[in-house]
Predict the 3D structure of the following.
Amino acid sequence: MFDIYTIIFLALAIFIFIRLRSVLGQRTGRERPPYDPYSARDARAPASDKVVNLPTRNAETMARPAEPAPDRWKGIADEGSAVATGLDAIVAQDRSFDARHFVAGARAAYEMIVGAFAAGDRKSLKGLLSREVYDGFEAAIRDREAKGETIENKFVSLDTADIIGAELRGNVAQVTVRFISQLISATRDKSGNVIDGSPDKVTEVTDVWTFARDVTARDPNWKLVATEAGQ
């Protein structure tokens, strides 16, 4: 029924099958899947596999923020204070936040805003103030212009700019700063007469300003959202 060539090919096929079976083994249904670099290590792998099990990379572990350094806010806020807690909350949502850089920017903004208000520079104010604060400043400028009054301001020094409050309200970070400055300020009527302040006297001025920023927004700039005279 079979010629010699058929018998030879059958014998060769059986030999190859036996060799492959001995090398590759049998599938049992318990084989480990192909390696996935994004999956967690199989914690149930047998010791003979010589696998070093790494901590499971679950969502809770990945979301846990790094522990803040004890002196993170040194020179800015006392450890454990309400201000430090507020700053921790802000930086947890905005890793780019730097309190010292913020204070430097707040000092510059303070001088710019005071100067722009005295000069009636609405364009500069609009980019630095929230809508509500801008409306209040603009109304004061409009009233002053209607009366023909002018303000002369001169900074002698900006002595301190201290963060006295910090919090995260939803996605909005708010930081309150107390400024103490030495200022020469005088308001003149339309005839040039001084009706408030003095063009020669240095006065210490304390202001408490609150700046805010949406930490989810691309715009990195903070805006002034509240002002009050400090004690």
Residues 20-66 have pLDDT under 50 and may be disordered. The chain is about 35% helix and 25% strand. The radius of gyration is 36 Å.
